[in-house]
Amino acid sequence: MYTASPDRYDRPEGFYRRCGKSGIMLPAISLGLWKNFGHEADFKESLDMLHYAFDNGIVHFDLANNYGTPYGSAEENFGRALQESLGKYRDELFISTKAGYDMWPGVYGNWGSRKYLISSLDQSLHRMRLDYVDLFYSHRYDPNTPLDETLQALVDIVRSGKALYVGISRWPHEAFRYALDYLDARNVPCLTYQGRINMLDHAPIEEGILQTCIDRGVGFVSFSPLAQGLLTERYLSGIPEDSRMRNSINLKESVLTPEMLRHLLTLNEEACSKGMKLSQMALKWVLEQQGVTSVIVGVSRLSQLKENLEWIVG
Ligand SMILES: NC(=O)c1ccc[n+]([C@@H]2O[C@H](COP(=O)([O-])OP(=O)(O)OC[C@H]3O[C@@H](n4cnc5c(N)ncnc54)[C@H](OP(=O)(O)O)[C@@H]3O)[C@@H](O)[C@H]2O)c1
Known about the structure:
Layout: E1 16-18, E2 25-27, E3 29-32, H1 43-55, E4 60-62, H2 73-84, E5 94-99, H3 114-128, E6 133-138, H4 147-160, E7 163-169, H5 173-185, E8 190-196, H6 203-206, H7 209-216, E9 219-223, H8 244-247, H9 258-273, H10 278-287, E10 292-297, H11 302-313
Parallel strand pairs: 3-4, 3-10, 4-5, 5-6, 6-7, 7-8, 8-9, 9-10
Antiparallel strand pairs: 1-2
Helix pairs in contact: 3-4, 4-5
Residues 32-35, 62, 139, 169-170, 194, 223-229, 232-234, 243-244, 279, 296-300, 304, 307-308 line the site of NADP nicotinamide-adenine-dinucleotide phosphate.
C-alpha cells in the first residue's frame, strides 16, 4: 500500500516555477513516459519510478496517446498506477497528454483534424481512467488541416471539461503565434509550448519561439533535455546494449560521430570540474534559459531519476 512521502513538498526554493502568466506552477523537473513506461517495461519498475518521482515533488507527468509499445500502453499503465496508488493524490497531479502523431489505422488516427483530436482524447481518458486531463496538446503542426479546425477543437475540448488547459507542441513559430491569437480571442489561453531545448539543440531559442513564450506569458516545457541520453555518461565509452541508441529508431547510432563524442567528453570534463554529472549540468543549463518553465526528463531506471533530481533537491 503506497503512501506518498510527507516531505514531498519540502523542495528548495524555486523548484516550482510559474508557467508563463498562468496560475499554474510546474516542477523544474517533470517526468515523461514516452519510453520505458508502456508494456515494454516491467510495471513494478515503472511504478517505483512514478512513486519516487511523486515522493520527490515531481507532480507533472507527461504522456501522449502513442507512448509505449504498443501505442497507448504508457497511458494504460499510468491509469493502472492511478488506480493502484497515485489516484488518491489526483488533485496534486498535473497530467498532460497529446495527439498529433499516428495512433490508429486509417485516415482519422493521425495529424490535426477535429475528429482525431477529440476521439483521441476520449481514448486517452479511457486508458488512464480519468475524467479529465490537466493539459492537452496538439502534438504537431498539420500542414493540411486548417489551423482553425485544430484550434477550435482545442477550445471545445477545454469547454467540454475534458482538459483544463491546452498546449502546443512542435508547431512552427508563425503557426504558433497564430494559435496564441486564436486561443486568446476565445478565452482559452495556451498554457505551454512544448519543444526541444538542450545543450546540443536550441532551435526554439534561435527561431524566437522561446522569446514569444516570454512575450506572451506562455510557459515553455522542454522535452529531451538530455538529448535522449547523449548528454549523460551513457555513451562516453561505447554504446551500451541496453541503451536507447541500441534499441530505438529514435536515437540513431550515426549521431555519435567522433566529433560528437569529443564534444561530449569535453562537456563531461566541464561537468566534473563543477562537481556535477554531465546529465545534471545539462539539465541545469536548460533550466537557466530565461522562459523555460520545466524540463521533461525520460528515464529507463530509478538510478537515472535519482541522478537527475539529486543536484536540485539535494
Ligand atoms: N512533444 C514531443 O514531440 C516530444 C518528443 C520527445 C519527448 N517528449 C517528452 O519528453 C520526455 C523526455 O524525452 P526523452 O526521453 O527523449 O528525454 P531525455 O531525458 O533527453 O532522454 C531520456 C533518456 O536518457 C537516458 N538517461 C536519462 N537520465 C540519465 C542519467 N542520469 N544517466 C544516464 N542516462 C540517462 C536514458 O536512456 P536509456 O534508455 O538509454 O537508459 C533515458 O531513456 C518524453 O518522455 C516525453 O514525455 C515529447
